[in-house]
């Protein structure tokens, strides 16, 4: 009996966290024939703070996982981004590219995450829900060989063993911290707060981004820090939220829930974004950006998604990068496991942070510069007033902010953005 339990709790790879990063890693590892344990601290379905809007980058990853993203399967498709600011309103369709589809998606996170986790299980991953991972298990050389956890409602202490562990446990990533990997203070951090309202605008064809947030209560209009979004969910509700960056002077001082209330109070009443139409509380979450925790591989531990600070600093998007880093991590692990000696396996694993830097490093460096600029409300105001009156410039901005270019054979805009990303220092 003990042997059975031991084998059930031993695998080739342990993945901690079954959000988009963890579930995608587990799926691709299992598809490649590895034995994978996927450990999730809560039970599905569970809520996550998110805008629920997915760009074409995320749609591509969902297709690669074999997930049915048709409207019949409950996904709401969108054509692009509507940008509001500087007295202007501009609708920009997602670009026509060979590398990505020309549509984005919307899906609630409680349901979205569960779909990915179940897909990983179908591929052969063994998932434990209500499995709260605490300490790493280290060998004499300080290398991770497993994790201690508390399992089930009775919080039974258990251990899981594997030669490799993937930290997909989000922004707070307790596992990384226990392994001595702390957040870099020189990297931008964002905060997002959001809630849901019943609204006639629930089936909007575009994701809506507000570059200026106004508090119109009282005698004087006040420009608030951050940017806002309104995403129709297709189910009678809209996800309405705002993001703010720690480069803003007001970052620590202000009550973001109050700012969200002030902003929605300034909207037309017929949209329904009023307190009585709110279907749940206002919730907040941190957005770890631009590789804010490094190295992404050390002593048997790989970081994916928010644990590695993979949120795009240009637009706050995390899901696509969580899934993409998961694919890179899974491919690296599969190649490493096929090597004959520990030294060769280690050599292969050390490629993971290098590939991440080659893939995103230059782009994230550009994003960090962008974040510093827009942290100043005056710069943001001028940019929106001037920029939105130039549709060609805004099409370029959409490609830049959403990181949607063809790597080869693209148009002039693609070549400029790809060129800038290549010459920028690797973050």
UniProtKB/TrEMBL annotation:
Gene3D superfamilies cross-referenced by the UniProt entry: FAD/NAD(P)-binding domain
Residue ranges of every copy of the FAD-binding domain listed in the record: 11-333
InterPro entries recorded: FAD-bd, FAD/NAD-bd_sf, Geranylgeranyl_Rdtase_fam, Geranylgeranyl_reductase
PANTHER family associated with the record: CONDITIONED MEDIUM FACTOR RECEPTOR 1, GERANYLGERANYL DIPHOSPHATE REDUCTASE
Name this polypeptide is given: Geranylgeranyl reductase family protein
């Amino acid at each position: 009996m003990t042997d059975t339990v031991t084998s059930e709790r031993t695998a080739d790879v342990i993945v901690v966290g079954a959000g988009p990063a963890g579930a995608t890693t587990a799926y691709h590892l299992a598809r490649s024939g590895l034995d994978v344990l996927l450990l999730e601290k809560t039970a599905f379905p569970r809520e996550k703070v998110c805008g629920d809007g997915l760009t074409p980058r995320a749609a591509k990853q969902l297709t690669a996982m074999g997930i049915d993203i048709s409207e019949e399967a409950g996904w709401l498709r969108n054509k692009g981004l509507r940008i509001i600011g500087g007295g202007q309103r501009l609708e920009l369709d997602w670009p026509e590219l060979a590398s990505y589809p020309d549509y984005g998606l919307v899906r609630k996170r409680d349901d979205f995450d569960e779909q990915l986790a179940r897909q990983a299980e179908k591929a052969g991953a063994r998932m434990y829900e209500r499995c709260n991972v605490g300490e790493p298990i280290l060998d004499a050389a300080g290398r991770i060989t497993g994790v201690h956890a508390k399992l089930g409602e009775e919080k039974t202490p258990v251990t899981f063993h594997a030669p490799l562990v993937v930290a997909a446990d989000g922004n707070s990533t307790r596992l990384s911290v226990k392994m001595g990997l702390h957040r870099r203070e020189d990297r931008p951090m964002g905060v997002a707060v959001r809630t849901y309202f019943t609204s006639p605008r629930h089936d909007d064809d575009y994701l809506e981004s507000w570059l200026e947030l106004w508090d119109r209560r009282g005698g004087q209009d006040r420009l608030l820090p951050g940017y806002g979004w309104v995403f129709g969910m297709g189910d009678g509700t809209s996800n309405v939220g705002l993001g703010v960056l720690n480069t803003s002077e007001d970052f620590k001082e202000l009550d973001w829930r109050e700012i969200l209330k002030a902003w929605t109070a300034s909207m037309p009443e017929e949209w329904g974004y009023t307190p009585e139409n709110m279907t749940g509380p206002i919730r907040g979450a941190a957005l770890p950006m631009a590789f804010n925790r490094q190295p992404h591989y050390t002593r048997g531990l790989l970081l994916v998604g928010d644990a590695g600070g993979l949120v795009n600093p240009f637009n706050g998007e995390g899901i696509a990068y969580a899934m993409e880093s998961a694919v890179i991590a899974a491919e690296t692990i599969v190649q490493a496991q096929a090597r004959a000696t520990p030294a060769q396996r280690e050599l292969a694993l050390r490629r993971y942070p290098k590939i991440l830097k080659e893939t995103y490093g230059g782009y994230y460096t550009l994003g960090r510069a962008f974040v510093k600029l827009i942290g100043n409300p005056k710069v943001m105001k001028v940019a929106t007033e001037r920029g939105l009156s130039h549709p060609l410039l805004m099409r370029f901005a959409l490609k830049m902010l959403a990181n949607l270019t063809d790597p080869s054979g693209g148009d002039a805009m693609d070549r400029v953005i790809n060129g800038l990303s290549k010459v920028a220092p690797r973050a």
